[in-house]
Write a structure and sequence with these properties.
heterodimer, A: 14 helices, globular, B: 6-stranded mixed beta sheet, 3-stranded antiparallel beta sheet, 10 helices, 9 strands
Chain lengths: ~290, ~250
């Protein structure tokens, strides 16, 4: 009975196995990035970037049809352009990152919508908007796994400057020139993981598998290594449970995954350390 | 090398408005120099120029062959995100950046140095606490420990004893004297004149332009202090281009 519900879908159907593999790859690549987005107070930046990518993907789609390679490339170009331009404006002028990013992503979005309206075939674009993790072919799965691998490797390379830049940017500037490149590389990783996610979850929900696990992790750990581990595990758990839910109930897979993550998040808000239940029943204060 | 820092007619400022105006002078290696002056006198600006965060509007600063990244700099209001989950040990460890860089491991020797630095500032036992749990004074001790680990020839401290209690300032001042004894060059911006008289052989009094620079006893006179206050006029939005530069370029 339990076997039928939880395991059989994956042993019986290849598309479920592919979906599970994809969601594990996405979790490994995206969740650590989400933790840094949260700690750098850039959670909504991830959301803005997701919008910035959309027109690039749409252009790719208009130029060469429902070709994932073209759409990924288009998304990467749009995302990188917005990330790098916004980063440069922030670093060379006094404008805050959120303001410059908002300007660039809105411009990008308007441009994309204009281009789409010229041709106007929106049906297949639904696929881009909301994704379809159950329609992964080999090629797509390999691209997702490749991007996740690149993401983990690059994060390992920039981990130390990224942490120091997050804690004490002025100090990093006085001892090293790595700050700006590390920051740009980080923005690039955000874009790669978003593009990676939109094949499975769609442009609008891709950021969910990065941010929600990070929010969950914050309630269970007080050091960054622990947070990253918990974020990855809860992302994989959400992915798995979401796929099962989707399989059993016909809820679309992308929203199902994010909804499971949201349930975990609510549970963490209630029962995590520093969560609401602990605040209501804090226990007696200590001697020292 | 007989000069550690040489200011060559340096002007530093923001949006073309000078905050430090035509400063020239030299700091000898091993000097312990107090930089004093009213708020807005340009002390922090001078330090920001010194460590390379701010490019001079005119003139230059020479560092006696030192790379700017080899200066240990403690800014006045550090932009530290204290909610970031990093332990005291890891935070202090970043002081070894010039040794470890991106990937260098924190080996046994480095661990010992970090432990010694924490002991020197009285933070032994705090290694695994997150920096967000420290008090203001403990945070300042932590920043001194990081400066200690940077092992720099030139140390620049911007108002290091602001909002710090007497015990902590005394402990940290002892560390500064220790650095002086080791032959390091230390520049510190300060407001406590008694502290300057007691511990700093040399003083630069700044009020956008240098008022006096030399032996502390000769600099810290009532007339100089009054003069400094008078010269430190407000930022003038409609100020004309600097006349001194104009005459100089005409002469050239």
């Amino acid at each position: 009975m339990i076997y039928d519900a939880l395991i059989a879908p994956f042993t019986e159907f290849e598309f479920m196995r592919r979906a599970l593999a994809a969601v594990i790859a996405l979790s490994l690549g995206g969740a650590p990035i989400g933790v840094f987005l949260m700690l750098r107070r850039m959670s909504l930046v991830g959301d803005a970037m997701a919008h910035a990518i959309l027109p690039g993907a749409a252009i790719g789609f208009l130029l060469s049809g429902l070709n994932l390679f073209a759409m990924t490339t288009g998304g990467l170009i749009a995302g990188f352009t917005v990330a790098i331009l916004a980063g440069l404006v922030t670093r060379t002028t006094g404008l805050k990152e959120d303001a410059s990013l908002a300007t660039f992503y809105l411009t990008s979005l308007a441009l994309g919508v204009t281009i789409v309206s010229i041709k106007g075939t929106n049906i297949d674009l639904l696929h881009v908007l909301f994704g379809n993790i159950l329609a992964m072919d080999d090629q797509t799965l390999l691209v997702v796994a490749f991007n996740a691998t690149i993401s983990m490797l690059v994060l390992a390379v920039i981990f130390r400057p990224l942490v120091v830049e997050s804690v004490d940017p002025l100090f990093l500037r006085t001892v090293s020139r790595a700050g700006a490149p590390a920051h740009l590389a980080f923005l690039a990783l955000v874009v790669i993981n978003l593009v990676n996610g939109f094949q499975a979850l769609g442009t609008l929900l891709a950021v969910g598998l990065m941010i929600l696990p990070a929010g969950i992790a914050r309630f269970w750990s007080h050091d960054i290594t622990g947070m990253i581990s918990i974020a990855v595990v809860s992302a994989i758990l959400s992915g798995y449970a979401g796929l099962v839910l989707s399989f059993q109930t016909r809820v679309p897979s992308g929203p199902a995954i994010i909804l499971v993550a949201a349930v975990l998040y609510i549970a963490s808000v209630l029962f995590g350390s520093g969560g609401l239940v602990r605040q209501l029943f804090p226990g007696r204060h200590l001697e020292a | 090398m007989s000069v550690q820092v040489k200011f060559r007619d340096v002007t530093l400022g923001y949006d073309r408005h000078p905050a430090v105006h035509h400063l020239s002078g030299e700091v000898a290696p091993g000097a312990l120099l107090a930089v004093i002056g009213p708020n807005g006198a340009g002390k922090s600006t001078l330090f920001r120029g010194l460590v390379g965060i701010l490019k001079p509007l005119a003139g230059s600063i020479e560092l006696g062959g030192l790379d700017v990244r080899d200066i240990a700099y403690l800014p006045q209001s550090a932009e530290i995100d204290r909610s970031f989950p990093i332990s005291v040990f890891d935070f202090v460890g970043t002081g070894l950046w010039r040794v470890t860089g991106f990937f260098g491991g924190i080996g046994k020797g480095a661990r010992e140095r970090i432990a010694q630095a924490l002991a020197a500032v009285g933070l032994t036992g705090f290694e695994n606490r997150n920096i967000g749990t420290l008090s203001g004074g403990q945070m300042q001790r932590l920043l001194f420990a990081r400066v200690l680990l940077q092992d720099a020839r030139l140390i620049v401290l911007d108002e290091p004893f602001n909002a710090i209690d007497a015990k902590t300032s005394a402990d940290l001042m002892a560390l500064v004297e220790h650095w002086h004894a080791e032959g390091r060059t230390v520049l510190a911006a300060l407001h406590d004149m008694d502290l300057v008289r007691a511990h700093f052989p040399q003083t630069l009094m700044l009020a956008r332009e240098p008022v006096a620079w030399g032996e502390t006893a000769e600099v810290l006179t009532a007339e100089n202090l009054k003069e400094a206050r008078r010269m430190c006029e407000a930022f003038d939005e409609g100020a004309a281009a600097c006349a001194a530069d104009a005459t100089r370029s005409r002469a050239a």
